[in-house]
Design goal:
The structure is a homodimer of 226-residue chains.
Chain A (H helix, E strand, L loop, with lengths): L5 E5 L3 H13 L3 E5 L2 H11 L3 E5 L7 H9 L8 E6 L4 H9 L4 E4 L4 H15 L8 E4 L2 E4 L4 E4 L2 E3 L3 H12 L4 E3 H9 L7 H15 L4 E4 L3 E4 L2
Helix pairs in contact in A: 2-3, 6-7, 6-8
The first copy, chain A, binds a DNA duplex (30 and 30 nucleotides) through helix 6 and helix 8.
DNA sequence: ATCTATATTATCAAATTGTTAACTGACCTT
DNA sequence: AAGGTCAGTTAACAATTTGATAATATAGAT
């Protein structure tokens, strides 16, 4: 993870702010706080957080109003909005979600639940960041952390470059990778190797696995298809 | 939205299945159902739904087990998983979210809430999918990132130039492209090829796809019309 | 009917990829 | 240190696919 994920929490109850902040900071987030709706908008503009947790009942501007403001501003297109309230009524739920909220958590808040849910939202948002480095596709499994490839449970030993090439392609099944992309991803930008090199490695992968999981797209590149 | 969003619901209570199905269908989703965990996995593989709603308490396999299975398979990377339970306890919440669930809804279910939340999940998911350079027109789909052309779900392999030509035309259906435009877009400005070359490629596309999706505008050029 | 633009077909040239074998250097064994 | 093994690379050639052109046929317009 490069930059820490920024979260802004807006609630008028100081002790809630404090508790949530504590847990979020402990979970590795960068946390900012606001004590009312106006301050929330202000700080949202200042810090451009990745996620904003809004209490609905707040002075100056309600969570709904802040949510509406944020969603009308393209700058916050990718910002997650979590609404927070003591009210457990359906109407608020629906209103919040329809105003563009991404999730809805009812008080009393369990810090564990809050963090689980926020993590789930981010997991969905940044599939690539997912720490799961195992690709499973039908009966083929490619485990980056173990450099291990199994097919129908049987282990196949691929050389480093073969493995990296297969992993790259399989990470985005169906997508065509240009030869140039493959070279820069697997071999790096400064290394200069010929085009034939890719072919030979592709061939070795096909031969070792014995299945036709890599498709040639003539004049374009290769793609994983299985 | 071209294709309808597919949702799979798994619950062992028939009346719940029915009620939810009814509302989801009314909301414009394509709905499939399963009455236990094993059937859920089966149908997930068959229909590749965009969203799977899982009851936690189910015979054969619990919602947790199904969730775990789905999340370990890259085929379902982009599938939303919503967990459903009568239990309102925090432990299930956390377990579900940590297993990769995207949302968690407690029974008794309000159809309105359910649909609001699913819509919210999809709204959030769309932007990343929106990057796709896929042209969809009736039952014809042209995917630039995959260099893949399908008609009624059947894959047709076009050569590079054929594909690029079709993609160019289909990107702006109805618009007539002059021969000069086609040449400079597909072949580039420095390459010099004759006019007949375009005709030949157009013909190959028509022959391969078997449909008349490209119209000749005599004396002017060609246009995509389908 | 004639003229023009496009469609079709066949053919050849060019580009791309597949395959095999050989070379190099790193690493391991003895 | 010599010999062996293996990953990675390249070269050379074969196989295949694709692209372009020319020649001819057809259709559309005036």
């Amino acid at each position: 993870m490069e930059a820490p994920i920024k979260i802004l929490i807006a609630d008028d109850e100081a002790d809630i702010l404090e508790i949530i902040s504590f847990h979020l900071i402990k979970a590795g987030f960068e946390v900012h706080t606001a004590k009312d709706g106006s301050e929330a908008i202000e700080k949202a503009n200042t810090y451009a957080p990745d996620c904003i947790i809004l209490d609905i009942m707040m002075p100056k501007r309600t969570g709904f109003e802040v949510c509406e403001y944020l969603r009308s501003n393209s700058q916050f297109d990718k910002t997650l909005i979590v609404l927070l309230t003591a009210l457990n009524d359906e109407a608020s739920h629906i209103k919040g979600l329809e105003l563009g909220g991404d999730d809805f958590i009812t008080k009393p808040i369990s810090p564990k639940v809050l963090i689980s849910r926020i993590s789930a939202l981010f997991r969905r948002l940044q599939p690539s960041v997912g720490q799961n480095k195992v690709i499973n596709c039908n009966d083929l499994s490619i485990d980056l952390t173990q450099y291990k490839t199994t097919l129908k449970g049987v282990n196949y030993i691929l050389a480093k470059k073969e493995f990296e090439l297969l992993y790259l392609l399989a990470a985005q099944p169906g997508r065509v990778f240009l030869r140039g992309e493959i070279l820069s991803q697997v071999w790096g930008n400064d290394v200069i190797v010929g085009d034939r090199t890719i072919d030979v490695h592709i061939r070795k992968i096909r031969a070792k696995l014995g299945i036709d999981c890599i498709t040639t797209v003539k004049g374009v590149g290769y793609k994983f298809d299985y």
